[in-house]
Amino acid sequence: MLVLSGIRKSYGHGLALDDVSVDLPDGQCLALLGPNGAGKTTLLRVVATLLRPTAGRIEIAGIDARREADRARPLIGMVGHGSRLYEDLTAMENLRFWAVMAGGDCRPARLHAALQQVELESAAADRVRTFSAGMKRRLALARILLGQPRLLLLDEPFTELDQRGRKWLGEFLLGFKSSGGAVIVATHSFGSGLAVSDRVAILQGGRLILDRPCGDLSWAELRRLYESLTEGQEALA
Q1: Are 6 and 57 in contact (CB under 8 A)?
Q2: Packing angle of the helix pair 91-101, 108-117 (nearest 10 deg)
Q3: Which of 14, 18, 74, 189 has the smallest count of CB within 10 Å of its CB?
């Protein structure tokens, strides 16, 4: 699904990403760990073609995303820190707005199907300002799912979610993987992200310093390794 080779991103004389390479097959989830400022969000934005790398190759489902970004973008869905939702609109109105803006299918049946995917069909007529943080996260996912992406990029997706919201998101991601989709979950803490991940990578100072299958390490071993590799720069949540 995703192949990154030698990705670099520089700002002036500084490097935000330095020779990052990743190979993520269909049906797998990569947990991208690292302290704040490690380059996780920058990497997600590069993969999403929102930020052009200084050097390196990005291939998504066989498409050279640097040369053919317009072909690659429909395959990608990214949910960042902001939900990009309009608080005074209903859930259905939000989806209709984004579908029209993207030039996609805005038929009511399609919009209801997207809400059903994230278990928000009963709140279709409710205004977003009344939603919990977990409901807003689900609606943001519904907006992304309108485009039927094959690669999900999630930046701190479990933040502010209660136990029920974390359980729902974990189950949703497992279902997305089982349908052949690939996922990158970027986080600076352990938590629920590892439960749905097949591999774990650690980004530090813009460099990928670890990339291994989750089954190779216990939670305690991974925690110790993270702390030693990042030199305890940030306490884990």
Answers
A1: yes
A2: 120
A3: 14
Going from the C-alpha of 106 to that of each of 85, 92, 101, 116, the distances in angstroms are 17, 10, 10, 15
* Phi-psi domain of 6 (left: phi exceeds 0; alpha: psi -120 through 50; beta: other): left
3-state SS class at 198: coil
DSSP 135: H
Distance CA 120, CA 83 (A): 15
What pLDDT, in 10s, does the model give residues 65-84?
Answer: 999 999 999 999 998 877 68
pTM of this structure: 0.88
Radius of gyration of the chain (CA): 18
Q: What's the CA gap between 230 and 110, in Å, rounded?
A: 45
Q: Per-residue pLDDT tens for 90-117?
A: 999 999 999 998 888 889 999 999 999 9
Which whole-number Å values give the CA distances from 206 to 52, 79, 96, in the listed order? 15, 21, 38
Closest by Cα among 3, 23, 35 to 205: 35
d(CA 170, CA 165): 9
